[in-house]
Design goal:
By secondary structure, this protein is mainly α. It has 9 helices and no strands.
Length: 159
């Protein structure tokens, strides 16, 4: 698969601002392993091969267990996820899918039971940001693994 165009080079200021937001989120109140799970699930839902490849590798580098990575796609049925992770994954699915029906009060209350207001705000920005990256990855067909060396993802041992 060849990338259709290099949006990072064509719109460097915008790419940089989105990258800065991603970096800020890694220094926010949501733990890296939770961010990894959310980014993996959104990338699965959006069909973004580049981002899924990247975030699985990041998760391995952050110490995520391999079996849990395999189970992200079936998190509802899997016993491997804690209530807080389940809430984050449900929130991810709700905000990644079509929002024409809105987010139910039941889901909002379940997620609020696991996250503080600040955490929920940051988690929502994590989801918004990965959805933006996914849109670009899908639109321009970024090649999975093509930036591994640049981002240090070769350290994941998943070549």
């Amino acid at each position: 698969m060849n990338q259709r165009l290099n949006y990072a080079k064509l719109s460097p200021e915008m790419f940089q601002k989105l990258a800065e937001l991603s970096g800020l989120l890694r220094h926010g109140v949501i733990e890296d392993r939770m961010i990894d799970l959310v980014q993996i699930r959104a990338s699965q839902l959006n069909g973004c091969a580049f981002c899924l490849d990247m975030h699985v590798k990041e998760a391995k580098i952050h110490g995520e267990r391999e079996l849990r990575l395999y189970h992200v796609a079936i998190w509802k049925e899997s016993p491997l996820f804690e209530p807080r992770e389940r809430a984050a994954l449900a929130w991810t699915e709700a905000l990644t899918a079509s929002l024409s029906e809105g987010v139910s009060d039941e889901l909002y209350e379940r997620v609020r039971g696991q996250f503080s207001e600040k955490e929920l705000a940051d988690l929502t920005f994590v989801i918004m940001t990965i959805n933006a990256w996914n849109r670009a990855g899908v639109a321009f067909q970024a090649t999975p693994g093509s930036a591994d060396k640049m981002y240090g993802l070769d350290k994941a041992g998943l070549a």
